[in-house]
Amino acid sequence: MKEPQVILAAVAGAHGIGGEVRLKIFAESVDSLKAHKRLFAGERALTLKSVKPGSNGAIARFAEIADRSAAEALRGQALSIPRTELPPLDEDEYYHADLIGRPCIDAAGKPLGVVVAVENFGAGDLLEIEKPDGKSALIPFRPGIADPVDGGIVADPAFLA
C-alpha cells in the first residue's frame, strides 16, 4: 500500500520563461516548504532547487522543470510529501491531514458525521463536518466544542445545527 501523502502546495502556473512556477502554499510557511527537498506531483518526484515568497504564495524552481512549457504542464498539480516526512508534533497538536476522515460523535457516542476539511479564515481552525444527511456544517476546533479523542472528534451537536 502506498504511504499516505500530505499536500503542501499546488502549482498555480508558470512564472517567467525559465521554468519557475507559482505556488499556492498549504504548508505553514515558505520556510516549512524549504525543509523538503523532494516533492511529488502525483507519482512524479520533483527536486526543489529554490523557493521564495511571491504575491499570494511562493515562486519555486524544480531541477526537472527547465522551461515555461514544462512549468505550464504542472499547472493545477498538487505537490505532496509522505506523511512520515512531517516533523513530530507536541501533545495536543494536530496536522490538518490527520483530522480529515475522523468520525464525529456527540458525548453519548451518537454519530454526527465525518470531518471532511479543516478551514482557517483567520480566527482559528474550523472543522467541516459532513452530516449523515449529506449536509455540511463548520464548527470551531476548540476545547468543549470539538475535542479529538481516540481517532475521532467529540463535538457539541448544538454547533452542527
Q: What does this entry look like structurally?
A:
- By secondary structure, the chain is mainly beta.
- The chain has two domains: 5-85, Elongation Factor Tu (Ef-tu), domain 3; 96-160, PRC-barrel domain (SH3 type barrels, Roll), CATH 2.30.30.240.
- It contains three helices and twelve strands; from the N terminus they run E-E-H-E-E-E-H-E-H-E-E-E-E-E-E.
- Strands 1-2-5-4-3-6 form a six-stranded antiparallel β-barrel. A six-stranded mixed β-sheet has the order 10-9-8-7-12-11.
- The chain is elongated and about 60 Å long.
- The N and C termini lie far apart (38 Å).
- The model has no long low-confidence stretch (mean pLDDT 90).
**Alpha plus pi helix count:** 3
Instruction: Please state the second-level CATH architecture of the largest domain.
Output: Beta Barrel
Please state the structural category: mainly beta
User: What name is given to the CATH topology of the largest domain?
Assistant: Elongation Factor Tu (Ef-tu), domain 3
Q: What's the total number of strands?
A: 12
Strand content: over 45%
Can you summarize this structure?
With 161 residues, the protein is mostly beta strands. The protein contains three helices and twelve strands; from the N terminus they run ββαβββαβαββββββ. The protein has two domains: 5-85, RimM (Elongation Factor Tu (Ef-tu), domain 3, Beta Barrel), CATH 2.40.30; 96-160, SH3 type barrels.
